[in-house]
């Protein structure tokens, strides 16, 4: 299949187009729900009760709107697994493009994020007791809600950063769950500012001292101020839109890691890179990496791909040299080819060559 052309939102009118066109259209096909956490015998008991939030968008209802550029052909469903400190509303633009291409979309908010159950009172902090909880919850969501929306057609996975590390583990533990998967700058290994083995030792020591729920040194709580110098090269319109979502909704202000989260992120990193785990991946994977990434490491992504491919798997790595970590936040000149590759991959019967 040839790369699918995408009509992108005009960056010069970004906020207006989001408010006037995209969000009203999404509202007509949007539903939300709450899922009980996965019941996994290998996980410790939950310390706090609560359900996990998700938002879904029905392609059939969307198609009835007759939006310009819509495929009007149902192709299945896409499950979105977001990154660290993110939330469902941040992916409205990506949801819009998937709907235009004919996919229903199911966005899952990981534990401790968005409207899902939290285990700390400070809305800026992210804490998790066991990384396997993320994996079990995402797999349950895809097996139930995702498959329902796919309605017998392909069920695909799109994930970013932390959500990509979680997604990689799901591909290893549930090798037939998804038909295809896009790992966008996946957290196969995070950037910690020091060798990750040392960060693991330090985070473990802080947890043993009873400081697992404390904010990691050097991070901060959410503030409404935005310094575009931190996003040089990104689309200012998109970055400001994301920030406004946080300002407008206290549920969307997760911003900093706890020592326990760092400890578990590094345990996840080690687990997904194990050769015996990589050997289990059967799903065709398109892995994007950013040349200017400061949040996750590129080389472990390459090793992950090589390890999966060495045992007959199918991972294709696409490197975007001039991109920041959030490729979906980049200007249209970068976002357009990125989206076309994703949609071409999802829509093809074979692994496309790029």
UniProtKB/TrEMBL annotation:
<feature type="domain" description="Serine aminopeptidase S33">
    <location>
        <begin position="75"/>
        <end position="328"/>
    </location>
</feature>
<dbReference type="Pfam" id="PF12146">
    <property type="entry name" value="Hydrolase_4"/>
</dbReference>
<dbReference type="InterPro" id="IPR029058">
    <property type="entry name" value="AB_hydrolase_fold"/>
</dbReference>
<dbReference type="InterPro" id="IPR051044">
    <property type="entry name" value="MAG_DAG_Lipase"/>
</dbReference>
<dbReference type="InterPro" id="IPR022742">
    <property type="entry name" value="Hydrolase_4"/>
</dbReference>
<protein>
    <recommendedName>
        <fullName>Serine aminopeptidase S33 domain-containing protein</fullName>
    </recommendedName>
</protein>
């Amino acid at each position: 299949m040839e790369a699918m052309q995408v009509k992108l939102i005009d960056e010069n009118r970004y906020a207006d187009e989001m408010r006037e066109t995209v969000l009203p259209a999404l509202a007509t096909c949007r539903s939300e729900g709450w899922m009980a956490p996965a019941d996994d015998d290998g996980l410790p008991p939950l310390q706090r009760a609560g359900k996990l939030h998700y938002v879904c968008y029905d392609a059939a209802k969307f198609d009835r709107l007759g939006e310009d550029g819509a495929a009007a052909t149902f192709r299945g469903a896409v499950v979105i697994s977001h990154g660290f400190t993110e939330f469902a509303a941040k992916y409205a633009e990506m949801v819009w493009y998937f709907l235009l291409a004919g996919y229903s979309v199911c966005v899952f908010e990981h534990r401790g994020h968005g409207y899902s159950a939290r285990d700390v009172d400070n809305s800026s902090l992210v804490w998790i007791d066991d990384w396997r909880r993320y994996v079990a919850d995402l797999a349950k969501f895809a097996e139930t809600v995702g498959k329902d929306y796919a309605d017998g057609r392909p069920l695909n996975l799109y994930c970013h950063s932390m959500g990509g590390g979680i997604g990689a583990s799901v591909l290893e533990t549930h090798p037939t769950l998804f038909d295809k998967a896009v790992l966008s700058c996946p957290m196969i290994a995070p950037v910690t500012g020091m060798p990750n083995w040392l960060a693991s030792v330090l985070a473990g020591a802080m947890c043993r001292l009873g400081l697992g729920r404390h904010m990691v040194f050097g991070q901060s709580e959410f503030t409404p101020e935005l310094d575009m110098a931190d996003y040089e090269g990104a689309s200012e319109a998109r970055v400001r839109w994301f920030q406004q979502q946080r300002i407008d909704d206290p549920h969307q202000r997760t911003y900093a890691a706890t020592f326990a989260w760092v400890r578990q992120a590094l345990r996840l990193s080690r687990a997904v890179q194990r050769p015996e785990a990589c050997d289990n991946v059967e799903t065709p994977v398109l892995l994007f990496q950013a040349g200017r990434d400061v949040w996750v490491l590129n080389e472990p992504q390459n090793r992950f791909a090589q390890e999966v491919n060495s045992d007959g798997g199918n991972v294709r790595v696409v490197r975007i040299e001039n991109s920041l970590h959030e490729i979906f936040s980049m200007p249209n000149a970068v976002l357009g080819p990125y989206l076309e590759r994703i949609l071409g991959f999802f829509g093809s019967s074979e692994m496309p060559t790029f």
